[in-house]
Amino acid sequence: MATATKSSKAPAVTPTAVAATTPAPGRAYLTATLDEATGELTETSRFRYLPGHPRQIRFDAKAGQFNINGLTQLGPALSFIPLAWRIFSDDILNMGRKLWAELFYADDKGAVCAVLFHGYSVENLYRLIEPLFYDELTLADVVVHVRAVKKETTKEGKKATYYLAEFSYEPAGLAEITARRDFAQDFPLWRAETYTGAADMRIQHGYAVPGGDTPAADNSTPGSPEPAALPQAA
Length: 234
Description:
By secondary structure, the protein is mostly beta strands. The protein has helices at residues 120-134, 174-186; strands at 12-13, 30-34, 41-45, 55-60, 65-68, 72-75, 77-80, 82-91, 97-106, 112-118, 142-155, 158-171, 200-205. The strands form three sheets. A seven-stranded mixed sheet has the order 6-5-4-10-9-8-13. Strand 11 and strand 12 form a beta hairpin. The radius of gyration is 19 Å and the shape is elongated. The model is unreliable at 1-21 and 218-231 (pLDDT under 50).
């Protein structure tokens, strides 16, 4: 990332890039623009995020495809550097109590997205987290590759096919890691539709709801926050 030229005025952060507390000038996710006429340095966010309402990415385990809100097809694979994540057990989306993995990331256009996995796909994610842990890394330090893998099962003499998510990774660039780390520190990363306040947390990193209601791992905190008073990042 290019270093911005210093001006005589203090750097200004645009209102849409302000979190619950104003980010310090020079945060890695901010892009600096110098107004040559006034000498004023303005910083805007690389990432767009309406707190509590990330773009919804769905994994269709029947078709082996990812999509946006069930409409725009993204294909059978995704690659991203996670901003935040949690593995938890909860009754969400009218699907009964299940073990879930929820990951937040910024797509190639800078939109903050959230994607959910459950069942055996969560076990596959654990298999990725474990070697990273022993290498003193987390998912936030790597590019995660997710692909849909076809499986077959036989029930009552009939074969059926379905898809699981399998995960791999490669090293990520330091500048991209730093930008996402700074953003996750400045903004509460959560999704209102999947937050109940009653989750049994297994693992979490960077996940936060406003008002300090985020349940700690292996703990539950009642109550559901409202996102109305929060600004968006853009």
